[in-house]
Specification:
Strands 2-1-3-5-4-6 form a six-stranded mixed β-sheet, with helices on both faces. About 45% of the residues lie in helices and about 15% in strands. By secondary structure, it is α/β, with parallel strands linked by helices. Pfam families: DUF2064. This is DUF2064 domain-containing protein. It comes from Psychroflexus longus.
Length: about 220
C-alpha cells in the first residue's frame, strides 16, 4: 500500500487575515493567494485540507498549528505538506520538490527570511507533538529550532528562502522579488502604490519611495 500524502493549508479566511494583517491591499492580496493556492494544490492531485480559523483549536499559534497537524495525521495520512497563504513566491515546483522528498523518506523545509517557514513536508513518524509544541513559535528562532528537532530523525531537503507577508513593510518589500512574483501580485502592488509611471525593472526605487511615502505612514503596527 502506498503512503498517503496530503496538503494541509493552515490559514485563516481572507476576511480574518485582513482583520489581523491590516495593510493597504490586504484583501486583494490574500484573495489572490487563496485562489492561487487552490489551483496549485489541485494540480498535485493530492488531498487538500484547509484548516481555517473555525477548525483551529488552541490558545496560541503553536497550539493551533500543532493541533491541526495532529488532527490531519489522525485521519490516516502518512505524510503532510504544510503551507500557509502568505508567501506569494511559492510555486508548483516547490510542492513537487516536497512531494519527491517525502517519497524518498526525507523531510522538506522552505524557510522565510524572518526565521519562520512557509512550507514543511513531514512524515507522521517524524512528527512529535510534545517537541513541536515547545518550539519558539512566532519568533525568528522557530525554523532553526525545527531543524534541530528533526535532524536526528530524518534528512531535510531545503527549498529556497522566501518572503512571507505579515505587515505593510513586508508587502512593500515584495518588490525586491518582482521577478519571482506572479503577475497578479505585481499588479496589486502597482495599483496600491500608484507607481504606474515608474519603470518596474528597478524595484529598489519602489521600496525606497514606498517606505518614505504616505502608504508607509498609514501602516498599522506589526502583528
Amino acid at each position: 500500500m502506498e503512503n498517503k500524502t496530503g496538503i494541509l493549508i493552515f490559514s485563516r479566511s481572507t476576511l480574518a487575515e485582513c482583520s489581523v494583517k491590516k495593510f493597504n491591499g490586504n484583501h486583494s492580496f490574500f484573495e489572490s493567494q487563496k485562489k492561487r493556492l487552490e489551483a496549485l494544490c489541485a494540480k498535485t492531485g493530492l488531498d487538500v485540507i484547509w484548516f481555517g480559523e473555525k477548525h483551529q483549536k488552541g490558545k496560541n499559534f503553536g497550539e493551533r498549528f500543532c493541533h491541526s497537524i495532529a488532527s490531519v495525521f489522525s485521519k490516516g495520512y502518512d505524510s503532510l505538506i504544510i503551507i500557509g497563504n502568505d508567501c506569494p513566491q511559492l510555486k508548483f515546483n516547490h510542492l513537487q520538490s516536497s512531494i519527491k522528498s517525502l517519497e524518498s523518506g526525507n523531510a522538506s523545509l522552505g524557510r522565510c527570511f524572518d526565521g519562520g517557514f512557509y512550507l514543511l513536508g513531514i512524515q507522521k513518524k517524524h512528527f512529535k507533538y510534545s517537541e513541536f509544541i515547545n518550539l519558539s513559535w512566532n519568533s525568528h528562532k522557530v525554523s532553526n529550532e525545527l531543524v534541530k528537532s528533526l535532524k536526528p530523525k530524518v534528512e531535510i531537503d531545503f527549498l529556497s528562502i522566501f518572503k512571507d507577508v505579515d505587515n505593510q513593510s513586508d508587502f512593500l518589500s515584495l518588490l525586491d522579488f518582482s521577478k519571482q512574483l506572479y503577475t497578479d501580485v505585481i499588479l496589486i502592488l502597482k495599483r496600491i502604490l500608484k507607481f504606474f509611471n515608474i519603470h518596474f525593472q528597478d524595484p529598489t526605487l519602489f521600496v525606497k519611495e514606498g517606505v518614505t511615502g504616505v502608504y508607509f505612514n498609514k501602516a498599522p503596527p506589526s502583528v
